[in-house]
Amino acid sequence: MRKTLLAAVLGLGWLSQVPYEPGSSDDAMIRLSWRARGARVEECRPLTAEELERIPSHMQREEICEGTVLPYRLRVVLNELQQVDQIVRSAGARQDRPLFVLQELPVPAGTHHLFVEFIRQGEPSGDDEPATPGYLTLDATIALNPHEVALVTYDPERRELVLTGYGERGSS
Question: Which of 151, 154, 157, 172 could form a disulfide with 34 if both were Cys (CB 3.0 to 4.6 A apart)?
Answer without folding.
Answer: 154
